[in-house]
Amino acid sequence: MLILGIETSCDETAAAVVEGRRVRSDVVHSQVSLHADYGGVVPELAARDHLANARPVIEQALRDADVTLSDIEALCVTCRPGLSGALLIGTQIASALAWATYTPPIGVDHLVGRLLAAYLEFPGRVCPEPPDFPFLGVLASGGHTALYRVNGSHHTEILEIGATRDDAAGEAYDKVAKLLGLGYPGGPLIDRLAREGDPDAIPLTKPMSKKDTFEFSFSGLKTHVARWVKENGLPENDATLRNLAAAFQRVVTDTLMEKALAAAESEGLSTIALAGGVSANSSLRERGAVLCEAQGVRFIVPDFRACTDNAAMIAYAGSFRAQRGEGDRGVLAISPRTILPRLTRKGGGPRAPLDRPPLD
Ligand code: KG4
Q1: DSSP bridge pairs for 260
Q2: Residue 298 Cα to ligand 1 middle (Å)
Q3: Residue 272, beta-bridge partner list
Q4: For residues 223-240, b (16+ Cβ closer than 10 Å) or e, as one string?
Q5: What is the residue with the minimal CA distance to atom 23 of ligand 1?
Q6: C-beta separation of 148 from 267 below 8 A
Q7: pLDDT tens-place string over residues 229-273
Q8: Which tens digits make up the pLDDT trace of 109-161?
């Protein structure tokens, strides 16, 4: 089935054509430079930029896949969670295209797309063997950080079992980079510096390191770095900057992986799959593999293209609903919140039915 995916939930305007797991085209227009001066995404600017770029991005995706709109059998679009103005642009365009082509529009929860991104096969790449259900999904991006039990591809089969109480991991990277005057987005910049630093040179405490909770607090970690800067001043030389970056990165990596391994053990899951922008992190990928191997857990990292916002994962996640003949014609609504239920008290989605006791 040929599926067109559209993604505009935050700061990337993306369109892709997917056939099964195979990505036929994948076009992403990034707004990073638009928001760079502000150190974060400005919702109004994001929505306007999506409006300006959606049409050329979609046209490019169709051209790259060597198809026309009339070949498309279903239109999948991110409808939640995200910035309301940005989501509205994507869903309105998808609805209009669906109306014009007699194709069902299918709303997709962005987080479901993220968690299934490891299944995508990009042309010309060696793709990792995808995870078997059930698996533990570790989603770490600029807007979300949570652990999920993923029993299947439908949103009703995914349960959030742990999440950040405050900042997402990527947000912490961006805020720490801003604090150190490095620029935006902070993740790749800190990652590069950290590779040449000594993670043990500067002691930073792991926040929420108690074993009996699957919650995170990356705001706490950012505060530790801010306190270090207050006491010691901004790093005066490259070596100290690299060491601080390495220490911060080690704490983020170990926190994510230790909680993930504990959650996998508690849920009886033998596979951990990463998702989200932070899963591009070199230390998370390397240490994750080492820590998982030591515990006999299969560790899956998505292709780099699948780590950041893209529309291929939205098309793929929506394809299961399309195959069942489902659609959202006339009822495609947006929401800033995810539909995925959560066990923890804090988190983005609705509270899970209490036949499982809350974890906190
Ligand atoms: O998934 P993503 O592209 O979308 C949003 O959630 O917006 O994630 C972006 C986030 C940013 O916070 C960025 O700093 C972080 O992912 N990121 C990284 C790396 N590359 C991107 N964080 C750590 N290491 C990286 N290599």
Answers
A1: none
A2: 23
A3: 136, 299
A4: bbbeebeeeeeebeeeeb
A5: 187
A6: no
A7: 999 999 999 999 999 999 999 999 999 999 999 999 999 999 999
A8: 999 999 999 999 998 887 778 899 999 999 999 989 999 999 999 999 999 99
